[in-house]
Amino acid sequence: MRDFGRPIVHSPRPFPERIVHSGRSVRLDPLTPAHAEPLWPLAAASPESFGYLRYGPFESIGLFTAFVADLAGRADQPFWSVEPLGAGKPAGWLSLCDVYPADSSIEIGSIWFSPELQRTRAATEAIFLLMRHAFDDLGYERLVWRCAALNEASRKAALRYGFVFEGIWRNAAIAKGYQRDVAWHSILKDEWPAHRAALEAWLDDGNFDADGRAASGLADIRKRLAL
After folding, report:
1. Could you read off the pLDDT of 102-130 as tens digits, one per residue?
2. How far is residue 93's CA from residue 79's CA, in Å, rounded to a whole number?
3. Measured distance CA(61)–CA(33) in Å, rounded
4. Does the structure show a pLDDT above 90 at 9?
5. Is 68 in contact with 38 (CB distance < 8 Å)?
6. Which of 72, 80, 189, 210 is most deeply buried (CB count within 10 A of its CB)?
7. Helix, strand, or coil here: 80?
8. pLDDT, tens digit, 9 for 90 and up, residues 152-166
9. For the purposes of burial, counting CB atoms within 10 Å of the CB of 120, is it exposed (0-12), middle (13-18) or buried (19 or more)?
10. Are strands 142-148 and 105-113 parallel, antiparallel or unpaired?
11. Where are the alpha helices (DSSP H) in 32-150?
12. Do 111 and 153 form a contact (C-beta atoms < 8 A)?
């Protein structure tokens, strides 16, 4: 008998709603055009932060505002602003994209974090909140992380969160006049509980000192949990 795959009893998963997600260090609000004004100084000051994205940098606040309005209005790709608690303003955005409810597959993508947000507890928790939403709230079977193969920072981030490298699609994208290979990563539903435990342990208040520095890295926590 031929093997046609893994049998599964499955119904289409819900499409993600534009709702607020709150954590210990960050809040995700559905992106709106009003977020453009507080985000503009960060975007204008760091044009290099858009290097591997298909969009940006932006020459004026008018162009930036129009683009944020476009992101906020995408029916098939919900975006959230990322606001570190206590900051009083957002410092980036991210989305759930390439959503396939019938196939139970979803992607975290189009992430723009300003330099002041990058490599912070809030940045890690922002990603974690959408990972948890995709798996625990919506019940998806597969979560994807896709990036330009030359984007070493994004590829390292994917592995840090627990995504498994799947391979390279050669010459898979053309952006800003460059032909790019694309690196694919994923986490599956049955792999998620272990990664959730590690991320929750890293994000726990007890892992941070008074200055906000983490006592243990995610790699150390995974070793301690024997993951």
Report:
1. 999 999 999 999 999 999 999 999 999 99
2. 7
3. 12
4. no
5. no
6. 80
7. strand
8. 999 999 999 999 999
9. middle
10. parallel
11. 36-45, 61-72, 121-132
12. no
Whether 24 contacts 205, CB under 8 Å: yes
CB 126 within 8 A of CB 82: yes
Residue 227 has pLDDT above 70, yes or no: no
The percentage of residues in the chain with a pLDDT greater than 90, rounded to a whole number, is 93
pLDDT of residue 146: 98
Contacts (Cβ under 8 Å, ≥6 apart) of 72: 30, 31, 32, 33, 35, 79
Instruction: Say how far apart CA 87 and CA 85 lie, in whole Å.
Output: 6
Q: How far apart are CA 195 and CA 218, in angstroms?
A: 10
Tokens of 53: 């994205």
Binning the chain into helix, strand and coil, the percentages to the nearest 5 are: 35, 30, 40
Phi, psi dihedral angles at 139 (to 5 degrees): 75, 30
d(CA 214, CA 105): 32
Structure tokens at 1: 């008998």
- pLDDT digit string, tens, across residues 167-225: 999 999 999 999 999 999 999 999 999 999 999 999 999 999 988 899 999 999 998 98
